[in-house]
Structure formats: structure tokens, C-alpha cells
Amino acid sequence: MELKTTIFLTITLTLMISTTTCLKPSSSTFIKSSCATVTYPALCEQSLSPFAKTIQSSPAQLARTALAVSLKRSQSTQTYLNKLKQFKGLKPRERSAIGDCLEEVTDSLDRVSKSIKELKNCDNVKGQEFIWHMSNVQTWVSSALTDENTCMDGFGGRAMEGRVKSSVRAQITSVAHVTSNALALVNNFAQKH
């Protein structure tokens, strides 16, 4: 009798756990389905999956985390450009283009930082106030993306082709892609709220 009870309880518990698991999407499933809506889904999943425990299945936390990833990449790019600008073998035009790019990245970093703070203001508001705060976030993230894309303008023309331009482009592309994804996830959150 005791063996039958143990088997019955084990089967019941297993069914309860699997049913609960099926009803509630996992954090990784939530991230994957959310990332399917952005321009760079593989990058989105790769950059946000390490934060699955924090994100869980919260669209607000997903947007916050995506902005934090963008901020971190912007900071890394800013550091990289500062170091590159000090390189002694640069042509004057390259140094100037890097300086301009650095200004754009610094502006972008500031806008993403403001967006993160503004998104926190959305937690306890509804209606028009929520829309106003979200509009600020969307505007700043969109402007940050424009800043990042503008960075490469100074590297136009054949004279600027080479390792420096390729290196800067790789950095800027990386940060612009995560910022684009963050903007898409912020927009999704705003629509669902």
C-alpha cells in the first residue's frame, strides 16, 4: 500500500510540475519570442539571455535590460574611441573623425542613460503620464541610435578606407544594433502597456 501511495504521489507531483511549466512560459522562451520582433533577433537573444532570471517574463524589465545592454556597449565604445584617438599613427583626418564620432557616442550614451532613468518613472504611473514618460524614452533612444549612425559620417570617402575605419565601424555597428533592438523592445512595451 505504501509503495502505491508513493508512486501515485510521484506521478501527481510530476504532472503538476509539468502542467505548471507548460502554462507559464520560461524566461528564455519569453526572451526568444520577444526578440523575434526586433531587427537583430540573434543578437537580442545572445545579449539578453544572461539576464533571464532578472527579466523573467516582464516586458518592462526586458526593456530596461535591453537599455542597460545598450548603455554598457556605448560605454565600451566610448572607452575604445578614447584609446584609439591617442594612437600615434593616425592621420589628422582620422583623428578628427574619431573625435567627432566620440562626441556622437557620448551624446548617445547620455540619451540612453536618461532613457533608463525615465523608464523607471513609468513604474508607478498610468494613462497620459505613462504615455508622456514613454514618449521621452522613445525619443531619446531613437536620438541615440541616430547619433551612433551619424558617427561614421566623418569616415566617408576613399581616403578614409583602412583599418581605422573598419575598426570604428565594427564598434559602432555593435552598439547601434543593440540600441536598435532596445528601441524595438521599448516600443513593444509601450504598446502592450
Structure, explained:
- With 193 residues, the protein is mostly helical.
- The chain has a single domain, classed as Invertase/pectin methylesterase inhibitor family protein (Butyryl-CoA Dehydrogenase, subunit A, domain 3, Up-down Bundle), CATH 1.20.140.
- 79% of the residues lie in helices and 0% in strands.
- The protein has 8 helices and no strands.
- The chain has helices at 2-23, 27-35, 41-48, 52-55, 59-85, 92-120, 127-150, 163-192.
- Helix 5 (59-85) runs antiparallel to helix 6, helix 5 runs antiparallel to helix 8 (163-192) and helix 7 packs antiparallel against helix 8 (163-192).
Which secondary structure elements does this structure contain, and how are they paired or packed?
Elements: H1 2-23, H2 27-35, H3 41-48, H4 52-55, H5 59-85, H6 92-120, H7 127-150, H8 163-192
Helix content: over 70%
Provide the succession of SSEs.
Answer: HHHHHHHH
Tell me the CATH architecture. Up-down Bundle
Overall average residue pLDDT: 87
Query: How many domains?
Result: 1
Distance between the termini: 53 Å
CATH superfamily: Invertase/pectin methylesterase inhibitor family protein
> Which residues form runs of ≥5 with pLDDT under 50?
5-10, 12-24
The total of beta strands comes to 0
Q: Quickly name the level 1 CATH class.
A: Mainly Alpha
Tags for this entry?
193 residues; mainly alpha; Butyryl-CoA Dehydrogenase, subunit A, domain 3; 0% strand
